[in-house]
Write a structure and sequence with these properties.
417 residues; alpha/beta; FAD/NAD(P)-binding domain; Enolase-like, domain 1; five-stranded parallel β-sheet; 26 strands; globular
Length: 417
Amino acid sequence: MSSIEGTVEPVVIIGAGHAGATLAGLLRQQRFAGAITVIGDESHAPYHRPPLSKKFTDDSMVQWLKPIEFYADNDIELLLGVRAVRIDRDSRQVILDNGDHRKYGTVVIATGATPRMIPVPGADAAGVLTLRTIPDAQQLGTALDRTKALAVIGGGYVGMEVAAVARSRGIDVTVVEREDRILARVASRELSRRLTDYHVARGTRVVTNFDVAGFETTDGDITSVLSGDGTAIACDHALIGIGAVPNVELAQQCGVHCDGGILVDRVGHTNVPGIMAIGDVTRRPHDALDGLYRLESIPSAVEQAKHAAAAIGRAHGGAHETPWFWSDQFDLKLKIAGLLEEGISTIAREGEVPGSFGLFHLRPDRTVCAVETANSPKDFMAGKKLISERIPVDPTLLADESVPLRDIMAAGEKARS
């Protein structure tokens, strides 16, 4: 990647999350010579979000992306507790809610997403919580100190991570999911089954096909979650974890095309010159995939920051990385690469240690589109390579756990050559 030290037009980054903060750091790393401003509406410096759902009862929950002095040391203006209210395309200014403004040559929208709420009676009751920010996590951690029964609304990764932490503390936990299985949108049926069994074996109750119709309350405090058929699940706190809505309002106001997120090209350009977008707020193309994807993950945010930094310097950021994700639940370290597709077959390989495994998902042409692993880094790394290089595999060999993955990969590379 070439140096961009000759580029001097100011860059204004709206959003101080992983994508925005990473972009600012990469620009300085590449010797970008212009002014850089990062605008964050939270009062905290940029921090890691994954620990919020895994360590919200732990003092190690707050982890800064960079030491606080990094920003001043690298001449990055960090405006915290300030919200951008408008992008003026004509004057190329970002207008702030305190009446101030910042001029830009390029403005990058990295506003992330907001937890999706359930518009039902009682959703505003005390004890109904969401999880996205440090204050949210602190509130959840404090709530668990006085919680006897927790209802987790939504069986996605965040919900299952919170359920695991709460259950490990001896709290009665019920996960309610609208679909017929947990992780229905993001995981294979086999991974859903294995994780459900793992949680249930540790005392978590998992209720599927449960459509939340409301929350019962007494004196403003939640007492139960109600389904449409009248089923009630007793609880004194509930966490709503049913996904997040991209924060596209600022983009829409200035004519940026949005559809399920801010629409961008492979490096983050929008339809409006001078305006880019990266991170969870975007829907983007991927070199190895058809269509547009809103990939909500730290690896995706970091990769988009890398490509945006290169594009600002009029350089090429290289090929897109295979999408990957991770989750910690009890003592399981889950790592997933690729995306599931229609018409695939699944081959399971049990790992080297008890409870570890790799689920390999094959297309009809015998290439791997996705791999889901638990406590099995070898399976994850091999699967990621198989996906990115589109190496065909012999399903019979893959199903034989006595055959090392390296031999299966070597056979596939030989057959392809």
